[in-house]
Design goal:
This protein is of the alpha/beta class. It has 14 helices and 24 strands. The strands form 6 sheets. A 4-stranded mixed beta sheet has the order 22-23-1-24. A 4-stranded mixed beta sheet has the order 2-15-17-16, with helices on one face. Strands 4-5-3-14 form a 4-stranded mixed beta sheet, with helices on one face. Strand 8 and strand 9 form a beta hairpin. Helix 1 packs parallel to helix 2, helix 6 packs parallel to helix 7 and helix 10 packs parallel to helix 12. The model has no long low-confidence stretch (mean pLDDT about 95). The structure holds uridine-diphosphate-N-acetylglucosamine. The site of uridine-diphosphate-N-acetylglucosamine (UD1) has 21 residues, from helix 1, helix 5 and helix 6.
Length: about 425
C-alpha cells in the first residue's frame, strides 16, 4: 500500500493548478443517466472516486466515453442496461446513492446497496428515501439493499428537508427533472456544486427555478437531451492548498481557483494572518508573519465547510493562541485529532468542539487516517513538522486529491510517494 513521506520545514513557492470539483463531478456524471443522448463533461478531475463512479455507471450499462483518452472529458448517457448498484462498488463511495433517483426516473425500478463511504459518522440516507417516497416510489430495505419501484413516472411533490443535505438535494433534484408535474425542494442545500448540477440540468432541458437558493422549483419534463458542461473549480482543493501555503509559509499561486465560493474559508484565513490576493487567473496565497488562532464552526454553505475542518485544525495546531473548532455537520469528524496529537499538537475534544492550543512546532511521526480530509490534514501538519512524517493509507488521499505530492513538490515541499 502506498505511503507519503514528508520532511517538514520547507516554505512553499510556486504555482498549483486547481482541478474540477470532485463533489460536482460525481453528481454530474450521474446526471448523464437522465438522457438517452450524451452529456459531455469537461474539466473532470482524475481521482479514485471518479473511477469508482465510472465503474458504477459501467455496471448499470450506461455508455461512458473518454473523449480525449486522458479522463478529462467524458461523454455519458444512453439506454440503461441494469438497475442494480452492487455493494462492492457502493461501499467504496457514499455518493453512489445518487443513482437511486435517476434510476427511478428513467426505468422505474432500482436496487441500490446501502452506502458506506468515509467513516465520519452514521450518515443515513433517510432523507433521500423519504423524498422519493413522497414522489410516489415504494421503497423496501432488505439484505442491505434499497429496493425501490414506481408505477409509471415519479410525481412532483413538495419536499421540506428537516435538515440540510447536499446528497438528498441532488438526488431529488435529478429525479424531479423527469417527474410528472412540479416539485418544490424546501430547505434545500445551497452548495455551489448543486448550482453547478442545476445549471447543467437546465442545459439538458430541465426546468428549474431558484438555482443557488434554498428553494428549488422543478417542473418535470418528459425527457432531457444532450448538453456540454464544464465542471467548476474545486473549492475544497483550493482551500486545502491555501492551508498548505499558510502552514508551511511562503507564497503559492492557486491557478484556476475562484474566491467566489470560498468566502467563509478565505475570511477565516485572513483573520489568521494569511494574505489573500484575488487575481484574474486565480488566488495568490502568502504567509510571512505568524499565524493567529481563530474559532470556527462548520455549517452548510455559505458557512465554513465541514470538508475544510481537518485542514484548518492542522493550521491552528501551530497558531499563536487557542482556537475552538466546532463541527455541526457530522458527529464523528475528529479522527485526525489523536494523530495530530501524536505529532505534538495540543488538542482536546469536548463533544462537538475541539480546543486547539497552538504549539511552537510539531514533530514528524508515522500517522494514518481513516478519511479523505483527515488524511490531507496530516500531510499539511507534516509540511510544518520538524523531521519526517509518513502518512499511511494514501488511498484516502487519492479519492479526492489529484497528484497531491507532485503539486506540493513542485512548490518546494520535500514530499514523495513510497510505493
Ligand atoms: C456531501 C459531500 C461531502 C460533505 C457533505 C457536507 C459529496 C459527494 N459529498 O456529502 O464531501 O462533507 O456533503 O457538506 O458531495 N443526513 C441524514 N440523512 C440523509 C442524508 C444526510 O441524516 O438522508 C445527515 C448526514 O448524516 C450529515 C448531514 O445530514 O450529518 C449532511 O450530510 P449531506 O449533506 O447529505 O452529506 P453528503 O451529501 O453525504
Amino acid at each position: 500500500m502506498d505511503r507519503i513521506r514528508i520532511r517538514g520545514g520547507k516554505p512553499l513557492s510556486g504555482t498549483i493548478a486547481i482541478g474540477g470539483a470532485k463533489n460536482a463531478a460525481l453528481p454530474l456524471m450521474v446526471a448523464g443517466m437522465l438522457t438517452d443522448e450524451k452529456l459531455t463533461l469537461a474539466n473532470v478531475p482524475r481521482l479514485a472516486d471518479i473511477e469508482t463512479m465510472a465503474s458504477l455507471l459501467g455496471v448499470l450499462d450506461i455508455g461512458i466515453d473518454d473523449l480525449n483518452g486522458d479522463g478529462r472529458v467524458l461523454a455519458i448517457g444512453g439506454a440503461i442496461g441494469s438497475n442494480e448498484a452492487p455493494y462492492d462498488i457502493v461501499r467504496k463511495m457514499r455518493a453512489s446513492i445518487l443513482v437511486l433517483g435517476p434510476l427511478l426516473a428513467r426505468v422505474g425500478e432500482a436496487r441500490v446497496s446501502l452506502p458506506g463511504g468515509c467513516a465520519i459518522g452514521t450518515r443515513p440516507v433517510d432523507l433521500h428515501l423519504k423524498g422519493l417516497t413522497q414522489m410516489g416510489a415504494e421503497i423496501d430495505l432488505e439484505g442491505g439493499y434499497i429496493s425501490a419501484r414506481v408505477a409509471g413516472r415519479l410525481k412532483g411533490a413538495t419536499i421540506l428537508f428537516p435538515q440540510v443535505s447536499v446528497g438528498a438535494t441532488e438526488n431529488l433534484l435529478m429525479a424531479a427533472t423527469l417527474a410528472d408535474g412540479r416539485t418544490e425542494l424546501l430547505n434545500a442545500a445551497r452548495e455551489p456544486e448543486i448550482a453547478d448540477l442545476a445549471t447543467c440540468l437546465i442545459a439538458m432541458g430541465a426546468k428549474i427555478e431558484g438555482v443557488g437558493s434554498d428553494r428549488l422549483v422543478i417542473e418535470g419534463v418528459p425527457r432531457l437531451h444532450a448538453a456540454r458542461h464544464t465542471i467548476l473549480p474545486d473549492r475544497i482543493e483550493t482551500g486545502t492548498y491555501a492551508c498548505a501555503a499558510a502552514i508551511a509559509g511562503g507564497a503559492v499561486m492557486l491557478a484556476g481557483a475562484s474566491a467566489a465560493h470560498l468566502g467563509a474559508v478565505l475570511r477565516t484565513l485572513a483573520e489568521c494572518g494569511v494574505e489573500i490576493e484575488e487575481r484574474p487567473d486565480g488566488l495568490m496565497i502568502r504567509r510571512e508573519a505568524g499565524l493567529r488562532g481563530v474559532d470556527v464552526m462548520t455549517e452548510p454553505y455559505p458557512g465554513f465547510p465541514t470538508d475544510m475542518q481537518a485542514q484548518f485544525m492542522a493550521l491552528m495546531a501551530v497558531a499563536d493562541g487557542a482556537a475552538m473548532l466546532t463541527e455541526t455537520i457530522f458527529e464523528n469528524r475528529f479522527m485526525h485529532v489523536p494523530e495530530l496529537n501524536r505529532m505534538g499538537a495540543r488538542i482536546n475534544v469536548h463533544g462537538a468542539s475541539a480546543i486547539v492550543r497552538g504549539v511552537a512546532a510539531l514533530s514528524g511521526a508515522p500517522v494514518m487516517a481513516t478519511d479523505l480530509r483527515a488524511s490531507v490534514s496530516l500531510v499539511l501538519a507534516g509540511l510544518a513538522a520538524q523531521g519526517e512524517t509518513v502518512v499511511n493509507r494514501v488511498y484516502h488521499l487519492d479519492r479526492g486529491y489529484e497528484a497531491l505530492e507532485a503539486k506540493l513538490a513542485a512548490c518546494g515541499a520535500a514530499i514523495e510517494r513510497i510505493r
